[in-house]
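Need the bound structure for flavin-adenine dinucleotide, inputs here:
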Amino acid sequence: MQIIENQSLKLYNTFAISANARYFAEIHSEAELKETLQQNTQPLFLLGGGSNILLTQDFDGLVIKNSILGKEIIESISEHVLVRIGAGENWHQAVLWTLAHDFGGLENLSLIPGTIGASPIQNIGAYGVELKDTFHKLEAMEIATGDIHTFTKADCQFGYRESIFKKALKDKYVITQVYFQLTQANHKINISYGAIQDVLNSKNIKNPTIHDVSNAVIAIRSSKLPDPAKIGNAGSFFKNPEIPQAQFDGLKQKFPTIPSFPSEKGGVKVPAGWLIEQCGWKGTRRGDAGCYDKQALVLVNYGNAKGAEIWQLAMDIADSVEEKFGIRLLPEVNVI
Ligand code: FAD
Ligand code: EPU
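Answer from helper R.:
Posting the output first, comments after.
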């Protein structure tokens, strides 16, 4: 394991922001991770695929790039199968691996960028499914001691774009392995998200398989989300706000077309993309920083935007949404 000084992070973040790390180490095993942590270089930043971060400055510490690999079938119990996947594995490639084995459960989460190890951090979700629906347990190394601890689903305290690793245990653990419980028969097809149904109808697919669902999700995502290989971005920049029913009722009177979804917390979830579009930001551009023209919730770097410029645009968007709707948008992306 080698520690590199002054490493450019431009190729390590999907926003393609130019910023340097004072020190940078890529680890391939728990042993290498432990050795790196024992050097006690501070501050630390744990990097997966860099698809949910915005770098607003150089990082004056050690960036640890997690490249622990491995995909294994652990056990098979009647209709279910337990698989273990290394934290450094690419999320979408891992999903394709489960599909190649005809294991069901992750198909709605196809094509999400990033690594397996970051997926529990914000309990990734898309098209009616969240990580927590198939998550079994994870192993993580405690930064302070180098000990490996196991976290069950209950331990992780998953919520909408939330987990204990963003709250009480923030920056305390490095996730090393994630276990998923998948189906190997009687798959539970989830086509509750309207757009999936539309794609299946257009192809005249009446009884979709997990492969059909995956293909539909890939088609929808490709049509409205920018490919980070072509336009820098980190997916949704803000979370969809969850507000009390009474506040929503007031907004509905003033803005009758405001869309909404039920929130798991009991209130109402309002699509931030709609709020941003109503404020006139969709498709606008300030230098190389912009608000994507096909999806207003996605901020983009058209070339050489600085992280601070994207952040300024994000704050101006949040201010105007707050002024018009009285709702403060909170970033979903991790700002460094
Ligand atoms: P990084 O960006 O590298 O890190 C994210 C956070 O996790 C950081 O705080 C980091 O320190 C921490 N972290 C990373 N690895 C570890 C580890 N092993 N142990 C402990 N902490 C760690 N997200 C969704 O939920 N749903 C979507 O539909 C979705 N669509 C997207 C579409 C696009 C085009 C893009 C660019 C992003 C999208 N995202 C989506 C966001 C992103 O893909 C996820 O958040 C993903 O899980 C981030 O993985 P990563 O490896 O790139 O994490
Ligand atoms: N909308 C607009 N204008 C826009 C964009 C959206 O009006 O420009 C409204 C529409 O009413 C639309 C609704 O918002 O029906 C929902 O839009 P979409 O289906 O595109 O989903 P989203 O709420 O914008 C969320 C996740 C995505 C995830 C999709 C699909 C969050 C913060 N984002 O986006 O996750 O892929 O649903 O499930 O929850 C990510 O986290 O990075 C991400 C991309």
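Comments: The longest strand covers residues 173-183. The pocket of flavin-adenine dinucleotide (ligand 1) is lined by residues 14, 45-53, 66, 87, 112-115, 117-119, 121-122, 124-126, 174-175, 225, 228, 233-235, 334 (CB under 6 Å).
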